[in-house]
Design a protein that fits this description.
Blueprint: E1 7-13, E2 17-23, E3 29-36, E4 52-53, H1 55-70, E5 79-86, E6 91-95, E7 104-105, H2 113-122, H3 125-132, H4 141-151, H5 153-158, E8 159-164, H6 165-174, E9 178-179, H7 181-184, E10 190-191, E11 196-197, H8 199-205, E12 214-215, E13 221-224, H9 227-233, E14 240-246, H10 247-250, E15 263-267, E16 270-277, H11 284-288, E17 292-295, E18 302-309, H12 311-320, H13 328-338, E19 347-349, E20 367-369, H14 377-403, E21 410-413, H15 420-430, E22 434-437, H16 442-454, H17 461-468, E23 472-475, H18 479-512
Parallel strand pairs: 1-5, 5-14, 9-12, 15-21, 21-22
Antiparallel strand pairs: 1-2, 2-3, 4-7, 6-8, 10-11, 13-14, 15-16, 16-18, 17-18, 19-20, 22-23
Length: 514
């Protein structure tokens, strides 16, 4: 088979959908399919606020999407390997015989706030960040394990390992329990300097070390597709399974942002800004602001990143206003026609799920501020977009301050870049040019690049990036509009501190169940 006929499969496990793509050596997506990632709560009667992913539904969705893309090509043998990427924090306990013992606790679920509070009081945020490069957020993997130890001790005793969601799919594909440094970072138990599990943090956490799988570099060939997995997915039995990594880091590879000097802005369920660096800086200056230092999927590199939930807030707004099925174009046209920059003085605070960087407050909450009896839905829609872009600028300026630098070039990618109104507003709010990659789904392509390098399709990630890079478009700010947004951004920055006492009191009220 000629090299140009070879394809690499990538599986991307996202908060809204599971995507599968087949990629050619030039980065062209030959076939793709997706299935929705649906929230799940078998304990809704006593705990309606809990949020899960169903492991069987996740694996079933992977199988359906894989079969669809495999049916689109002439010869299954063209697929030379498969890699998995996706969200980072959600894990599942797995028994010695491979059974899942409890559903994935979603990052949307706030039940682990008491475990995070215990961690901060007992171990300390600064000490933790100095080793792990992450603050002790409630969504980190170790907090889920501690919750299980406190509330489902019999189940956790039966567990042989705790597998993060990508690692779970890899296990189902090839039977190997392993993780990579980027995913291990999400457990809060990974030593960034040593690039291995931290004995000190494991001892502090009290969790059994046996639960943590072996850490191997991204791009490692884990094994091959098992017979049962081949039947479910349509991937040929014996196809190499290559270790990928977390989605936002895989997403830096196709745009060349795995090399220092370029900042990648991934726009999806989360808004992530990622600057690749050669050394891990785990100083508390970064940690206090929620800027994380994470092992990269690129060999020997690290990522300074700041992020917060983003497109998921827009999806929430569309759902509660009854516009979930309304075309984007209609909403955008109405928003532009019937509202002006500044949304009539309404500001949206987008902390509906959590407030990582730079607010760094698990008990923060979302808000509309400045509502009047003249406010209309179109202004609220604009306020949501503007609020997400204030958030982007807040993260950007915070990272610049912590790293003592000034970013000159931003390359945006991800599914949300299809929204040109959002992108133009981002340029106007920030006063910066925003370069947008025409590659819509950089994360699965990045995972495919890791697999392709491991299997000899490309020499290294640099060559792969040159081969797959696509065209870009530029959004330039309107100086007059940027000037209009400047004072509103300062008001936006004041809102989270001002609302903090009320939000913390409300969080305590919700936790009390009264």
């Amino acid at each position: 088979m000629t090299s140009e006929r070879k394809l690499v499969a990538a599986i991307d496990l996202g908060s809204t959908s599971t995507k599968v793509g087949l990629y050619a050596p030039d980065g062209r997506r030959v076939a793709s399919a997706s299935r929705p990632t649906e929230r799940f709560n078998p304990y809704a009667a006593p705990h309606p606020e809990w949020v899960f992913w169903n492991p069987d539904a996740i694996w079933g969705g992977v199988g359906e999407a894989c079969r669809e893309v495999m049916a689109a090509i002439d010869d299954p043998a063209r697929v030379t390997g498969v890699a998995v990427t996706g969200m980072g924090m959600d894990g599942v306990p797995v028994s010695g015989d491979g059974r899942t013992l409890y559903p994935f606790i979603s990052w949307h679920c706030g039940r682990t706030a008491p475990q995070a509070a215990w961690w901060e009081q007992t171990i300390g945020a600064e000490k933790t960040f100095g080793i792990a490069g992450f603050p002790p957020w409630a969504m980190t993997g170790v907090m889920r394990v501690r919750w299980m130890m406190e509330h489902e001790p019999d189940l956790i005793k039966q567990a042989e390992s705790w597998l993060l969601i990508e690692d779970f799919v890899n296990f189902r594909l090839c039977g190997v329990r392993a993780t990579d440094p980027s995913m291990a970072s999400c457990m809060l138990l990974f030593d960034q300097q040593k690039r291995e599990w931290s004995d000190e943090l494991i001892e502090c956490s009290g969790i059994p070390r046996k639960l943590l799988p072996a850490v191997q570099p991204s791009g490692t060939v884990l094994g091959t597709v098992l017979e049962a997995a081949a039947r479910l997915t349509g991937l040929p039995q014996g196809t190499p399974v290559v270790l990928g990594g977390q989605d936002h880091l895989c997403g830096t590879l196709p745009v060349g942002a795995h090399r220092p000097g370029l900042v990648a802005n991934l726009m999806g369920s989360w808004e992530s800004l990622i600057a690749t660096v050669a050394q891990a800086d785990c100083s508390w200056t970064l940690g206090r602001a929620g800027v994380c230092m994470q092992a990269h999927v690129a060999p020997g590199r690290y990522a300074a990143w700041g992020g917060s939930p983003s497109a998921s807030a827009l999806a929430w707004f569309r759902e509660v206003t009854g516009d979930a099925d309304r075309p984007w174009e209609d909403l955008i046209a109405a928003g532009e026609r019937e509202s002006q920059p500044g949304a009539g003085g309404v500001i949206f605070l987008p902390y509906l799920s959590s407030a990582p960087c730079p607010v760094n407050d698990d008990r923060a909450a979302g808000a509309f501020v400045g509502l009047l009896n003249t406010t209309r839905k179109t202004a609220l829609f604009r306020a949501v977009i503007e609020g997400l872009n204030y958030q982007f600028l807040h993260i950007l300026r915070t990272m610049e301050g912590c790293m003592d630098t000034r970013f000159q070039r931003i390359v945006a990618s991800g599914g949300a870049t299809r929204n040109s109104f959002w992108l133009q507003n981002k340029a106007d709010v920030s006063g910066m040019e925003v370069e947008v990659s025409e590659i819509q789904d950089t994360s699965p392509l990045g995972a495919a690049m890791l697999a392709g390098v491991a299997l000899g399709i490309w020499r290294d990630l640099d060559e792969a990036a040159e081969r797959v890079k696509g065209s870009t478009r530029i959004y330039r700010p309107n100086p007059a509009v940027t000037a209009r947004y400047a004072p509103l951004f300062e008001i936006y920055r004041s809102l989270a501190p001002a609302l903090r006492p009320a939000n913390h009191a409300l969080a305590a009220w919700r936790a009390s169940g009264t």
